[in-house]
Amino acid sequence: MTVISEKSSVFVLILTGLFGGLLGLVIGLQNGSGAWGIVIGSLLAILASFIGISFSQNETKVRYIICALLVIGSFYYLGPIGIFLGVSIGWFFGWFLFWLFHRRYRKNLQPYLTQGQVLWHYAFRIICGVIFIFLITPILVVMPLSFNAQDFFTFTPEMLQFDPAGYSLKHYKDFFTNNEWQRSFKNSLLIAPIATLVSVSLGTLAAIGLSQSHVPFKRAITAILISPMIVPLIISATGMFFFYSHVGNFLEDTIGLDKNFVGYVKVILAHSVLGIPFVIITVTATLVGFDSSLTRAAANMGANPIKTFFKIQMPLILPGVISGGLFAFITSFDEVVVVMFVGSTNQKTLPWQMFTGLREQISPTILAVATILVAISIALLITLELLRRRSERLRGITPS
Fold first, then answer.
1. CA proximity to 275, closest of 337, 336, 228, 218
2. Three-state secondary-structure class, residue 298
3. 369: part of which helix (H) or strand (E)?
4. pTM of the predicted protein model
5. Please, what are the domains in the chain?
6. Tens digits of residue pLDDT in 323-358
C-alpha cells in the first residue's frame, strides 16, 4: 500500500468513525448510555470500514454485507422497524465509505480546489442540511401521530412495531364530523379568500403606483405599507383592536348593520392589512423586469389605461400577483393572534380552534388538522415554485 493510500485510508476511518459515533450517540441516548453509544458506534464503524477497504475490489458485495449485518442487528434491538432503519443506514454507510475511499467527492468539483475549499464545500451543505432537518422534524413527527389509534400525543408501542391496530383515521373523522371544527374550518374558508381578494386588489394597485418614477416619497410610502410585516404581531393586533372597535360601533350603531356581519368585516379587513405587504413585495419584484415601453406603445395605439392594464400589464405580472395572493391567503388562513383580538366566537377560525384545543382539552384532532394544513401549505408552495419559473420564462431569465 502506498503512502497516499495509507493517508486516504486513515482519512476514511476517521470520518466513518465520526459517523458511527454520531449514530451510536443517538441510539445510546434512547437507552440512557450516550457515552457508551459513541464508543461502540465508532469502533464498529471503524471496524466495518477497515474490512470494507481491505476488500474494496468487491464494493457491491461489501455494501450488501454491511446492509445485511445492520438489518440483523437493528431487527434484534428494534423489531420490524429496525429492518427499514438497517437497510437505510446500511446503504448510506456503504455508499459513504466508498465515496470517501475512491475520492468520488471530487468528481464534480474543479480540480484546482484545495482540501480546505473541498471541505468547506461539503461542510456548508451539511450545515444547511442540519438546519433543514431541525426545521422539518416537528412536521415529520406530527404527521404520523395524526394516525394514532389512541388519544395520545406520543408514539405507542403498536405504532413503533407497525401494527395495523396502532393506526386509525378516527382523528380525521372527528375533524370532519365535529360541529366546532367544521364551523371554524368554514370560517377560515370564508375569511381567507375574501381577505386575499382585498389584499391582491389593493396591493397590486399600490405596487403599480409605487413603480412609477414620478411618485414622490416612494420609499417612505413603501415602508409604511409593508410595516405590518415588520411590526410585532401582538402590537398590530392591539392597535387593530382599538381601531376596529370604533369601526364596528359605527357600522352597527350608525348604519345599522348586523353585529355578526360586522365581526366578519373587521376580521377580513384586519387580515387584508396583514396580506397587503406580501402582495406589494412580490408584484414590485415582478415589475422590476417589466418593459414600460409596452404600455406606451398600447397608449399610442389608442388603448385607454384600463384596457392597457388588463391586456398588456396584467398578463406579464400575473405570476407575481398570484404569488402575492397565495402568501396573503396563507397568512390569513394560519393567523390566530389578530382574529382573537378583533373577532368574536362567531368568527372563530381553524387556527383559533386549534389553539383552544391545545389550551383547554388537548384534543388529538389537532394533529389531524395540522397534517391537513401541512398538505395545503405544500400544495401552495409547489404552486408558488411553478409560478416563479413561469415568471422567469416570461421575463427571459431562463430558457423556455
1. 228
2. helix
3. helix 365-394
4. 0.71
5. 3-160 (no CATH), 178-394 (1.10.3720.10)
6. 889 889 988 988 888 998 988 888 888 888 888 877
